[in-house]
Design a protein that fits this description.
The complex is a heterodimer of chains A (535) and B (416). Chain A is an alpha+beta fold and 535 residues long. Chain A is 34% helix and 23% strand. In chain A, the strands form four sheets. In chain A, strands 5, 6, 7, 13, 14, 15, 16, 17, 18 and 19 form a ten-stranded mixed sheet that branches. Chain A starts with 7 loop residues before the first strand and ends in an 8-residue tail after the last helix. In chain B, strand 15 (289-295) and strand 16 form a beta hairpin. The chains are: A alpha+beta (535), B alpha/beta (416). Chain A: It is an enzyme of class 1 (oxidoreductase).
């Protein structure tokens, strides 16, 4: 049994997505003794599989005013506390000839009510400020949308939680809830790397497991009306747009194009899927076809832009308790006190909501937790900047000026000062597409809970660029070895990383994506001899 | 402009065909778009590394008999393979690509991960062993250039240790190497090779190696020497006190670049014309024959020839292309062997045999290309653009390139 688990925790948070990470930070800042457990890696669920869009709320202004005003408030907060994760691009809501132009007035009015600055601009002006936009547009509204990196946002929350005393365990799955006298007293855990079982004690469990939260409360015999809604997205190999482009109409499929770092992302589809499929989502050809068709309407140059990969996530939607059919699904934040709802003390579920309203979700869950625990402490997460944004960017030693340093700063924020740049080896580039140095890889391995190449990709963007890991995956595996991983394990990891990348490339494997796939196969299987099963 | 033969593609198969035809006294023009798959070369050439079940092949000439009828070797005729293999070896050595091996029996090369992989011919000086599971070394030192990430020493040493070899990893650098890597993107095998092309720089590297190396039967070094000829590979051997052997690195491959340079040099010596950096973009067909081709850089001029050879490579070399709906051959829109539906092109596991790997230009038994169902009498296809084999699974890519090129060159020279 691991030593951390001998502690008595106030709160155990289940789930290493942005909601769990944000809740861990909030709880820790309020002085609670916190353990966060995640069965896989951080951001493995919906957090890492969305647009990376910092909604202005405009999208929901007409249909869901409450969500819209939540969004705009959180939007403004995140720009302050997570500046290093946000790119302030602004967004357009465009009306195409096939759309009803009258909707624009309704839209602008609703934005105004929700407190979202929405200015109507002429199609000419829209084409000038965003040259990639469909030139046929007949109307445009400018709103404060932006892009946000959910991976780095989660990392920053985790780091701050840890700094304020939280313990964090990834690859630890909850296998059971310890219930005594109608009250939860802890969780049973399995280490998914070693298979070892253990137990941890606490006064309160916060279920922040997203769609998997359904199973967590199920362990206590509680039923939650959750409906997995799959959303598929496509990543393009270039950043064709600098502003978020949306359609000015009622929310529909594939009507948002977001510039993220060096790429852009179009999505999403929305389909209810069976609960059994959530751990192995497959992207279908129909979804890809739809995304391309609709994406080209936002920015016609997507037709000739290489598609890097396709991916899908599951939104944790919850139906009202009195509606077993699931027709009245809420997209708002759901914070459940299971003591009140089900008579089981010591359990809270926080779900619904959106990636970008995580902070508010965390605040609501932590407020409830504090009330339950009799702790009187105010939420400070709306004002305290996250690690990476807090403080000042350090003085850069002149001799290491490089674009790689800037790239690292873009990912790690002010924490880039902790990345070693002194030795030549540390300045060598592991990943050239994303300019990730050996120093940054080592920093991630030491500080950011990196156990494998997949973890590393999410912390540093290694293998996320145009080549999808062609050489950098092998180089990164080498660095992992040098920092203590066994060679056999690193090779097995390299194989699964190649397969994970292929999973995303396969639904879009034509044109240069197919060319790239062949090149990767020639290098890894032909030249390196990394075939499946071969020792 | 009029040639006897125009070859589209300046990679291994195009150059091999070009050299053979030029040696036979023909006026040959090669149109070469640029980078070839030689840039991903291991330093070894393969005839057949694995059989259809994925087992390592010991005797390639015998194992070839088991291949299907659509395999390019079957089209050549199994009985001709041994002779063509000898010719290929002779041609490589004539060009200055000094290789050793035996088509009757595979040896094993090392991969950059330290794995043993069956091979037919390997560049002299590169580490090889006769069997997959025996090593003659007891004590080995792996020496790497400091900060060179494309030579993953950890994996090589782990592999050797498993075989009971005592293995140590060391690194070295010199001011020149340090300088060459001022920009962090420049630490590539070919860049290091350019620095080490200078004899003085090489001398300093040898001094470093002599200073750091300890007790060892052999010193294993990354193959980052010999950019345009093999001299420095040999020179370093004489300068270093202990025996050394080279191991391939991650791409770009110095041995592959060198092979391309040496083949081009021989082709030029024989009077061949090489249009570098140009791309064939179409042709004029008449009465079942290709009359002329046009290129990107010579838009107002057609290139005429009696015979044409398409040696433009597979998808990664853009000899084959695909879009949303179909796989096609982009220069002439030749008939292609492929599956209809996109979903059938690939398999879910990246390490499964991927169907698209076998896609390519359809030919008759003499490698005549087929367009709209009709054989084109004077247009041949050779090398990776051909359908009918999976070079990643069978490890037969370089063999197919060399042998189909030689076979077609022979067909052409015997024709008149």
């Amino acid at each position: 049994m691991s030593s951390v688990l001998n502690k008595d925790y106030d709160v155990i948070i289940i789930g290493g997505g942005i909601t769990g990470a944000g809740t861990a930070r909030d709880c820790a800042l309020r002085g609670l003794r916190v353990l966060l457990v995640e069965k896989s890696d951080f951001t493995n669920g919906a957090t890492g599989r969305n647009h990376g869009l910092l909604h202005s709320g405009a999208r929901y202004a007409v249909t869901d005013p409450e969500s819209a005003s939540e969004c705009i408030k959180e939007n403004m907060i995140l720009r302050r506390i997570a500046r290093h994760c946000v790119e302030e691009s602004d967004g357009l809501f465009i009306t195409l000839p096939e759309d009803d132009i009258h909707y624009q007035a309704t839209f602008v009015e609703a934005c105004g009510k929700a407190g979202i600055k929405a200015s109507v601009i002429s199609p000419e002006e829209a084409r000038r400020i965003e040259p990639s936009v469909n030139p046929d547009l007949v109307g445009a509204v400018r709103v404060p949308d932006a892009s946000i990196d959910p991976f780095h946002l989660t990392t920053a929350n985790i780091l701050d939680a840890r700094r304020h005393g939280a313990d964090i365990l990834t690859y630890h799955e909850v296998t059971g809830l310890t219930v005594r006298n109608g009250r939860i007293e802890g969780v049973q855990l399995r280490d998914n790397h070693t298979g070892e079982d253990s137990e941890a004690h606490c006064r309160l469990v916060i279920n922040a497991a997203g769609i998997w939260g359904h199973g967590i409360v199920g362990m206590a015999g509680i039923k939650l009306n959750m409906f997995p809604a799959k959303g598929t997205l496509l990543v393009f190999g270039h950043r064709v747009n600098n502003m978020v482009i949306n359609r000015c109409r009622k929310p529909a499929d594939a009507d948002i194009l977001v510039p993220d770092d060096t790429v852009c992302v179009v999505g999403t589809t929305s389909d209810r899927v069976p609960y059994e499929t959530i751990d192995d989502l497959k992207v279908t050809q129909e979804e890809v076809d739809l995304l391309i068709k609709e994406g080209e309407k936002l920015a016609p140059s997507l037709a000739t832009t290489r598609i890097l990969r396709a991916y899908a996530g599951v939104r944790p939607l919850v139906a009202a308790d009195n509606d077993p059919s699931g027709r009245s699904i809420s997209r708002g934040i759901i914070c459940l006190d299971h003591e009140k709802r089900d008579g089981l003390a010591g359990l809270i579920t926080i779900t619904g909501g959106k990636m970008m309203t995580y902070r508010l979700m965390a605040e609501q869950a932590t407020d409830l937790a504090c009330r339950k625990l009799g702790v009187d402490a105010k939420c400070r997460t709306a004002v305290l900047p996250l690690p990476g944004t807090e403080g000042k960017s350090g003085d850069r030693p002149r001799h290491v000026y490089s674009t790689a340093h800037n790239a690292a700063e873009g990912r790690q924020g002010n924490r880039v000062q902790e990345v070693s740049e002194t030795s030549e080896e540390d300045r060598s580039l592991v990943c050239e597409c994303e300019e990730v140095s050996v120093g940054e890889v080592k920093y991630a391995i030491e500080e950011l809970h990196v156990h494998d190449l997949l973890n590393l990709r999410r912390r540093t963007r290694v293998g996320m660029g145009t080549c999808q890991g062609e050489l950098c995956a092998c180089r990164a595996a080498g660095v992992m070895c040098r920092t203590g991983m066994e060679a056999d394990k690193a090779l097995a990891d390299l194989r699964s990383f190649i397969n994970e990348r292929w999973k995303g490339m396969r639904p879009v494997a034509w044109g240069s994506t197919l060319d790239e796939a062949q090149l990767t196969a020639v290098i890894y299987q032909g030249l390196l001899g990394l075939a499946a099963g071969k020792g | 402009m009029k040639y006897d033969i125009i070859i589209i593609g300046g990679g291994l198969s195009g150059l091999t065909a070009g050299i053979t035809l030029a040696q036979a006294g023909r006026r040959v023009c090669i149109v070469s778009a640029g980078q070839s798959s030689l840039h991903f070369h291991s330093g070894s050439f393969d005839l057949l590394g694995y059989d259809v079940e994925g087992k390592p092949v010991t005797r390639p000439l015998e194992a070839i008999g088991q291949l299907g009828a659509e395999h390019p070797y079957a089209k050549i005729g199994f009985e001709r393979i041994a002779r063509l293999a000898d010719e290929a070896e002779t041609l490589l050595n004539e060009a200055g690509v000094k290789v050793k091996g035996d088509s009757k029996k595979n040896h094993y090369r090392f991969s950059p991960l330290g794995r043993r992989i069956p091979a037919w011919l390997t560049t002299e000086g590169y580490a090889v062993c006769e069997e997959a599971d025996t090593l003659s070394w007891k004590r080995v030192e792996i020496l790497n250039v400091q900060g060179f990430l494309d030579f993953p020493t950890e994996f090589i040493s782990a592999g050797l240790k498993k075989q009971g070899v005592v293995c140590q990893v060391k690194s070295f650098t010199t001011d020149e190497l340090r300088h060459a890597r001022k920009s962090p993107t420049e630490m590539r095998a070919t860049n290091i090779a350019k620095v080490l092309a200078d004899r003085e720089n090489l001398r300093k590297v040898a001094d470093c190696i002599n200073a750091v190396s300890g007790e060892a039967d052999v010193l294993l070094l990354p193959a980052v020497l010999g950019f345009s000829d093999e001299k420095s590979l040999d020179e370093l051997k004489t300068m270093v006190e202990k025996p050394i052997a080279y191991l391939p690195t991650l791409p770009p491959s110095v041995s592959g670049v060198r092979t391309a340079i040496l083949l081009k040099r021989l082709f030029a010596r024989l009077g061949g014309t090489l249009l570098v950096g140009d791309k064939a973009n179409g042709g004029v067909f008449k009465d079942g024959r290709l009359v002329s081709v046009t290129t990107d850089h010579l838009p107002d001029e057609s290139l005429y020839a009696d015979q044409f050879i398409l040696a433009s490579g597979s998808f990664m070399s853009h000899g084959l292309e695909s879009n949303y709906q179909r796989v096609f051959e982009p220069v002439f829109d030749l008939d292609v062997d492929t599956a209809g539906k996109r979903a059938e092109w690939t398999k879910e596991d990246a390490f499964d045999a991927q169907p698209y790997m076998e896609y390519g230009v359809r030919t008759d038994r003499d490698f005549h290309a087929i367009k709209d169902g009709q054989t084109v009498g004077n247009l041949f296809a050779v090398g990776s653009v051909l359908s009918g084999h999976n070079p990643v699974r069978l490890l037969d890519g370089t063999g197919v390139s060399l042998l189909t090129a030689l076979q077609v060159a022979r067909t052409i020279t015997e024709r008149r």
